[in-house]
Amino acid sequence: MRARLRNVSVAAKPRRKPAWGMLSASSEPDPREPAMSDVLFNLYGLTITPWKLVGLLGTFLFTARWFVQFYATKKSKRVVMPMSFWYLSIVGSVMTLTYFIWGKNDSVGILQNAFPMFVSVYNVYVHVRHHQPEVVSPGGSEES
Hints:
Elements: H1 2-7, E1 41-43, E2 46-48, H2 50-76, H3 83-103, H4 107-130
Antiparallel strand pairs: 1-2
């Protein structure tokens, strides 16, 4: 049995697909340009790649929207959803969606981030479409 196993050739690992935008005429990645999946550095056991930086920044922005909403509510002493909340939602969702589509290819992450992005885009669309500009006229209530 051992002799039989020695004669079995080990199949070569499948080649990694080149990153987007890094294809040369021969469909090989350019060795002078770092790929998005290349390791930049290790931080306390966490491997950091350019794709992970995109995903982490998107997560940070998506989380930051709650701090913006908290600050606006505290300042006005009533529940407020400022437009920056929705803009942070869109940018954070797009960045994390990009990470899950091209960086990780994870269908759960794609579904998890696609729906909030569409809700945020819809809310911005409704706001822009139905927003009435504030008009200040002379002799208004602030002058009485």
